[in-house]
Design goal:
128 residues; four-stranded antiparallel β-sheet; two-stranded antiparallel sheet; 6 strands
């Protein structure tokens, strides 16, 4: 079903990802991992428009890449990211997980992860 927009109005979807991160902050604050290109004004306007939140404050911090060495001795570094702490007027509540007996939904099952690597076939008794 098409959106009820006036003729000639363009509708743009965002081209970035906000990752909600668990934290030990008070319930009226939430932590997001956001792209480096976004500033405080962009973060506030996106959250207010997309999720209808009443935001009072946005604090951001940039985490620089950290160097490390791989097992083969190659020098590499982690990716830089920006963390945003958003203060809202209402308390933020994490959504409840879906119930297994909900009508129209099958119970959610976590897939079994195969242990693969050097020496795991002896340890777990399966052949690779």
């Amino acid at each position: 079903m098409p959106l009820p927009l006036p003729a000639g109005v363009k509708f743009y979807f965002p081209n970035f990802i906000f990752r909600l991160v668990r934290s030990n902050l008070p319930p009226h604050q939430a932590v997001f991992q956001v792209p480096l290109e976004l500033n405080k004004i962009d973060i506030k306007s996106f959250l207010e428009q997309a999720y209808k939140l009443d935001i009072t404050d946005v604090r951001t911090m940039i985490y620089r890449p950290k160097p490390y060495s791989t097992r083969t001795g190659v020098k590499a570094q982690t990716k830089a990211f920006k963390k945003a702490i958003v203060t809202m007027k209402e308390d933020f509540v994490w959504p409840a997980p879906p119930e297994a007996g909900s009508p129209g939904q099958e119970p959610f099952k976590i897939p079994i992860r195969a242990n693969v690597g050097k020496g795991t076939s002896k340890r777990y008794g399966h052949k690779l």
